[in-house]
Design brief:
It contains 22 helices and no strands. With 560 residues, the chain is mainly alpha-helical. Among the domains are: 78 residues; 102 residues, no CATH class. Helix 13 packs across helix 15. The protein starts with a helix and ends in a 10-residue tail after the last helix.
Amino acid sequence: MIHLRTILTTLLLLLLFGTAGASASSHTRAVDSLMTELESALARRPEYLQHKNARLDSLRSCVAMAADDRARFDALGHLYDEFFSFNSDSAFAVSLERESVARRIGDPILVRNAMLNKANVYNATAMYKECLEILDTIQAHDLPDYLLPYYYHIKRTVYGYLADFSAVSRDRETYTRLTNQYRDSILSVKEPGSLAYTITYADRLNALGRPREAIEVVEGFCDSNSLSPHDRAIFTWTLGDSYSRLGDTERQKIQLINSSLGDIRSAVREYVALRDLALILYREGDLDRAYRFMTIAVEDAEKCNARQRILELSRSYPMINSIYVDTVKGQRSRLLITISVLAVVCMLLLILFFYIRRQKQRISHARAIIERNNDELQKLNADLQGYVARLSDANSAIAENSELKEVYIGRYMDQCLAYIEKMDSYRKTVAKMSAADDSDKLRKFLKSTATIDAEFKAFYKQFDNTFLSLFPNFVADFNQLLRPEEAISPKQPGSLPPELRIYALYRLGITDSDKIAKFLRYSLTTIYNYRTKMRNKARGDRASFEDAVSRIGRHTDTPS
């Protein structure tokens, strides 16, 4: 029973650790994927900034085109909202203009609204005294219901900042109490389930040390509502704060990256997520990426003139410096270890060098002997290849001559038999004419060359057929030796024009022009002219043209 219980416990632990490991791996992949997306969004900041400026220009146009002061006051409100997290100086200027328009209208509610805008800018620029002076002139009972959440939000924020930067614990406790008080005031005037109520309630749960409940509230709201990129950035930062309180760094990083994506795509410059993400990366040793993110956060805070964020960033530098010093120390320790290892490796390499040098000398001596033997072997091999080449040429010539002889013996026997039959026919014809005692007809028959001409024509046709059966590709191969525009095409398939018939005899080894002339019944001058004409049409070297013709079909199989 004890053994069974032990086995079950072990299996349960393995299952839990395996599940935890798989979950951690999944979170790591999610972080890597989101980090790539964040890098891409940071690269597109000029594009987002361009869209932001376009929205600002559109809102300025709305202010300029306002029909009356009330419409202008509302348009300035939209312009203020767009400027607040982008440029505090511009937002402050818009709040002053808005207050001027409200006073011109003569509506005290609108004046207090504009004053709250101005106090909010003072708060963002760390001018807490000026912010509280404005807030002290405004009482909650003098504000309509729609301005109370804004009023309490500014008070909750300014006291929260004061609590963060208080050096005296008693003041810190006082400001913390006021922060919690005005947070509760926001909850009391906002409708449960609204965006502002949900984010404030989640902030309250985090402050009370109940981050798991805060996560449930925020995730439930995000799943059931469509949020703008800027609102999603606020919600995901709150989730990151909850996971930070739980010590879950990987999930905190996921939420901070999501929040940073919302801030970057909204083109705001007053934010916290990217800075907090950079601090985590510093602690994890990803210094290059952390430095880039922190630099971007500082630059945006300076461009926005968000001195509150600049103060928060300045408080982070001691921690960054400490991490940097620890990293440098670790790098120095690793460098010393690396140097020691390299020294040992150098000694081994030195010993190995002398050993290799000695072996190289031996190898060089052996290589010299091998090279001498190889040279002699190459000479012998060259001689042998020459013998083989000559033997191959001789074999090819023998095979070709043998085949030519076989074909021509067969054709010769056929031709002889045909001539015997024709001579017999000729004899019979003459005998008939002689028996008929028709001397004129006989004399006319004997003087006519028609029979000889017909025989020569049949003989040349037989020669063309025989030659092309031996060398079926002769015409194509011959044309390859000529320039493309000089190619020769036979008028009838299976026949050769005079030029090709001359070189057909040349291919068969009859190279003497006198013999070719007698064979073809041409004058010697005609043969010379044809050969000169063909050489002039040659594609390459004219001197080697006829030698190339004599090699046509030499190394290819020819049909019998």
